[in-house]
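Aim 2, interim progress. The first record below pairs a target sequence with its structure tokens.
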Amino acid sequence: MTLLVRDEEDILEANLAFHRSRGVDHFIVTDNLSTDRTPAILARWRDRGLVTVIEERQDDYAQHAWVTRMARMAATDYGADWVINNDADEFWWPACGTLKEAFASLPASAQATVVERTNFPALDGAGPFWDRLVWRDTQSRNPMGGPLIPKVAHRGDRSIEVEQGNHFVRQRGLRLVPVPAPIEILHLPCRSWPQFERKIQLGGAAYARNTNLKPSIGKTWRDLHQRLLEGSLRREYDRQNPVAMEHAAQVASGRLVRDERLRRALSEIMQDEAGAA
């Protein structure tokens, strides 16, 4: 699994521990200028021999180049059979068994697989995010109201090219046509207002500095960053993450359904991690 992270201290260790429990053998992580506890978390996992860390000092969110570098390293340096190019707020949940078993069930001819995502909106409160984010959105959308684009995983390939956003991959210049996998992605992009504001502040400014990308690439990040500059980002956050009264209405309408899978899994996994520390 590859990860590109920046200031992800609230979710990074849970992400690593969860995917390790689901069969990921090794992680390649690019840390892009983190100033919180992210480097310390990565150092602990690196000392356990489970994570390779790349420190990226550029500040222009060249995700395509950085993730492609990691994906190719997974094939050339680690002999990966399958590579998941992940984000820290995404948890790849196999329908049954492990991720290895899910990938093994795919046809031998499949070079890539597509995995749908579903959002878990934030609810304010104390405690770890997995205790609070237990409501799944049955009509998951991106922050601008558009479709929530799925992600892809691919067979290890020294020439693979991962497109910006990790939604598509290319092999020798041609986009691979993915097949469905018995996996879903539980997506937790908003875990608190400070986390969301910081994410848009850093990511949107980095996109603005990247002159190699078309303005249409990263449009959601760019639009949200503009709202931050205009002072309206909090309204957007509140729209995506309903307060108590709106939450009750969305539960009653079926828009939100209670889903405690991740809560149950991480409660046990993180307790084990704490005991092993």
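The second target in this work package is listed in the same format:
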Amino acid sequence: MAVAHVYTVAFQGIEAREVDVQVHIAEGGQQAFNIVGLGDKAVNESKERVRAALAAIGLSLPYQRITVNLAPADLPKEGSHYDLPIALGLMAAMGVLPAGELAHYTALGELSLDAQITSVAGVLPAAIAASEAERGLICPAACGPEAAWAGKIEIIAAPSLISLVNHMKGVSVLNAPVPKLANDAVNAPDLRDVKGQETAKRALEVVAAGGHNLLMIGPPGAGKSMLAARLPGLLPPLDAREALELSMVQSLAGELADGAISRRRPFRNPHHSASMAALTGGGLRVKPGEVSMAHLGVLFLDELPEFPALGSNVPSP
């Protein structure tokens, strides 16, 4: 039997690298379902999610040996967004969906046991990578507004596996997602809320105009945190390029609320007990840290002397 190909991505920082999901169903032999290609625990567990999701729409896996290869095999694969491309590859190998048509898309999404397609992180970088590869994108419906910012590419944002199958077969048509812009005026801190503190407010204006760093010293309750939180309101809105650049970082961190892109500059206020990985990024599955999340915005380090020294777990004096 021929091998079915479906494309998805693996994330390295904000870079989305192409992954070829190859599905082979062997004629005869002992029944098995194996996923190879240096996947993590979440990728290996996708077998059970995919099996249950296909059963929910009335499909059962053939009693044959199934092998899923995530190529290139030397690139680490992490996350649950491989569920959807694996399921699509299986349906293509089983003849349920046309394999040739699926090759024109990049797919990502997590499957629930009742065949719903749930949101995943990193859809915006994946959409931009799909645009560069001249492919369309298949993603969860909740991530559609986020993906729509990638430009003029075909985006299929499906709420469930059965709706996606019906769309691919022409039984029903899913509406194209529309880019969503966040309402930055809602509950945004404003400098007009500060009464008095004329010298401090003048300092904030100088900092905003010149892009300077600022060290605030004063007793508790003097209003340092309140003033700092209002600094983004003095900065100019993000332009289109900056908003897209920042949103890619937020998408990877899973903090792009409702897929809406904001033009307001970020304000990050990490606690002084935060780990070095939380501040600078990292961890077992590398994610952006507070420094990256404050890109093009404001990073406020309250109680600065209490933060750990760079490269050490010992608090600085």
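Residues 41-56 form the longest helix (16 residues). This observation will shape the mutagenesis plan for the next reporting period.
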